[in-house]
Amino acid sequence: MKAFSIQKSVISLALVALVGIAFSSCSMIGGKDKEPSYQLSSLQALWQENNTEHFVRFTSEQSDETSYLYGREWDEAEDVFEEDLLPYGNGWFKYKFESNGKLTEIHLMDNGGAEIPKVYVVTKLTSTDLEYYEKDRSSNKFYFSKVVETK
Fold it and tell me: Out of 2.40.128, 3.10.20, 3.30.450, 1.10.600, which CATH number does the structure's domain 40-146 have?
C-alpha cells in the first residue's frame, strides 16, 4: 500500500510539472512579450496626419551625422508647401529610426541654428499606417496615412 501511495505522489508531481511546462510554453508562443520590429524602408515615405493638411516626409537622404537621415514636415493649411522649405532650415529635421520603434527627430531651426530633439515611440507601421507617441508624453499621439505619390 505504501508503494502505491509513493507511486501516486510521483505521478501527481509529474502531472503538475507537465501542466506548468505547457502553460509557460503557451505564453511564450503567444508572443505578447515579443519586442516589435520595424523596417526603416517602411517609414521612408510621405505621410499625411489624420486627414489634415499636415505632412511629414521621411527620406533616405543622409544627414551630416552618420546615423541620421533627413526628413521634412509642413502644413499646407498655413500655406506652407514642401517646395517652400529652405534646405536644412525650418521644416527640416534629422531622424534616426531603430527597429524597436524608437524614432529620434532633431528639428532644425533657421534662427540661430537651433536643434530641437524629440523622441517618439512607434506603435504601428504598416504599408498604409503610421502611429507613434511622444516618449515622455504618451498622451501626445500622432496618426498618419501613407500618401500615394504620382509622378
Answer: 2.40.128
